[in-house]
Amino acid sequence: MSKNNWAFFCSFWGKNAKDIMEAALKGDLKNSNISLLVYESEPCGAAELAKANNIDTLLINKVNFSSSIEYQNTILAELLKRNIDYVFLLGYQHLIQKNLLNAYPKKIVNIHPSLFPSFLATKTAIQDALAYGVKVTGITTHIIDHKFDRGTILYQEAIRVKKKDTLETLTPKFSAKGFKLIIKTIKKMEKLEK
User: Fold this and answer.
1) Residue 62 needs a FRET pair 20 to 30 A away by CA distance; which of 76, 90, 151, 158 works?
2) Is 80 helix (H, G, I), strand (E, B) or coil?
3) pLDDT tens-digit series, residues 101-152
4) Cα separation of 87 and 90, whole Å?
5) Could you tell me whether strands 56-59 and 86-89 are parallel, antiparallel, or unpaired per DSSP bridges?
6) CB-hemisphere CA count at 13 Å for 58?
7) For the CA atoms of 181, 185, 187, 189, what is the dihedral angle to 10 degrees?
8) What is the DSSP string of 40-63?
9) CB atoms < 10 A from the CB of 91, how many?
10) What is the CATH number for 69?
């Protein structure tokens, strides 16, 4: 059976992408290859790991393009050239445009640090949850649509917020639970394909 080819997109250092690539290199994803990392800036820990392990990388920054459509059409051409089956947005800060959505219907997934439908369309969901004073927050993975942080929910995981919690104490909880959720999501997407 042939393996699914995944592309990971990240805009920053790429902790989630790096962690999942490490798991894949250890054999935790039997039916998937991480075939491409699309990233926007350096240093990028995920890109360093990818390059060291012969995973294709594409450094491409939106600021170098005249429009979001031109930027994402350039990425789309690279995905198609590499026979990418799925895309996972792991700390990616841009709204996916129509051409890319149409090329990959129900095959682009995202992870967001909140329990949908709370704290959507923000890059500071963890901080927002702390500021609001919630006792429970969490993580959602979902198939994306044409709006920020919307679409079909795949998995959600609750995270309890203690009185003394800060961004520094909550972030490791998100990392640990997020890692497991990403792995589960990739495996679920593989099953949906069958």
Assistant:
1) 151
2) helix
3) 999 999 999 999 988 888 777 777 888 888 888 999 999 999 998 776 678 9
4) 9
5) unpaired
6) 20
7) 180
8) -SSS-HHHHHHHHTT-EEEE--GG
9) 21
10) 3.40.50.170
Residue 143, token pair as written in the block: 């198939």
Task: Please say whether the beta carbons of 78 and 58 come within 8 A.
Answer: yes
95: which 2 tokens?
Answer: 């709204």
Structure tokens at 165: 């919690």
Q: How many CB atoms lie within 10 A of CB 173?
A: 19
Contacts for 176 with CB less than 8 Å, ≥ 6 apart:
none
Rounded to whole angstroms, how far apart are CA atoms 48 and 117? 34
Q: Are strands 32-39 and 56-59 parallel, antiparallel or unpaired?
A: parallel
* Domain span holding position 176: 4-193
- What does the alpha-carbon distance between residue 140 and residue 182 come to, in Å, rounded to a whole number? 10
In what side-by-side order are the strands of the sheet with 32-39? 56-59, 32-39, 4-10, 86-89, 108-112, 136-144, 151-160
Report how far residue 85's alpha carbon sits from residue 144's, in angstroms, rounded to the nearest whole number.
15
Cα separation, 115 vs 45, in Å, equals 27
Neighbouring C-beta atoms of residue 111, cutoff 10 Å: 22
DSSP strand pairing (32-39 vs 4-10): parallel
Number of domains within the chain: 1
What are residue 4's DSSP bridge partners?
Answer: 32
